[in-house]
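Might you be able to review the protein record set out just below?
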Amino acid sequence: MAAKNPKKGNQLRSSNLNLLVYNQIRIGLRPSKICEKFDIKKSTLQYYLSSLKNSGFVKKIGYGVWEVCREFNPEEVQKSTKVTYKQLRKYSNFFKSDKVRAHAFQFKLKLPKLRNWENREEVFLRKNIKFKPLKFGGVVRGQSINFRGRKIWLTNKSIIIYEKSSYLADTADEAKQHAIHDLVVLIRSLERMLGANFKIASKYVFKVSRQHYSLIKNSLAKQYNKEGKKLGVYSSEGLWFVIDNSFNLHEAETLHPKTADVDNKKVQDFFNGVKQFEDYTPQFVVNTMQGIQQNQLIFAQNIKSHIKAVQDMSSAANVLKNEVKELKNLIKENGK
């Protein structure tokens, strides 16, 4: 996105963006005003706010209201939560328990009507861009390229982008925001390389067609993995939760294409709630779930007993009613 104000654009492309956002929070500027002042998108600002928050420099105190917590130190800022496969294997022992690892992202970017887009292979050849034919059912549907470490499929109507890296954050939403920020940066680089504009009505139109979110070093996952057990939870819409051990991280993972981020929030809230108990263990979780199920059975049995009692009372009331009626008739007859 081209900046409306060249000076603002230069500021935004500087290497001190975290300090820029930090200083604006310090003087009391709300995120919406920072976006307006520096002509940046909300998702871009969220990326830097999350970095500052994860590093303990700022905190949110209300809706749209942030404040600084301590003096800024650029060497301590977590500039990115992006982690490669190699880093996952090398540094897994240093990751905190129940951090969220967002991974396996697949994005589908919808394309506008582009002139000569069907001749894009000529651009690849002219710019010496390596590509492979993308075949489905023996028919060429597009091209597959590797760009900035990602596998990318280009078709006539869309571009499919596979993100190989993981994103570590406190919540699924924060991790997703970082991934989307990197996606936008990638799309802009792809536009420059191909000399194209992929925006529709001044914005990129895309959807997340695949997304996985894991609570790493999760206690329940450790227990299952220790015992060599598998766990997969299904809903009416398919598999949404599994216990996994990728990179020896003992992960409680949500993976439904449409709801994985929302599901992860619910799972995270559940475990945070359970941790409030001193006797929290994976077995405690299982026993609690079994206890809930048993209580439901007992409740159902009690309901049946109550219904039977009410039915018996109703029958007794009808009998009493008939007896009272007969007694009234008898009194009338004797009175005559």
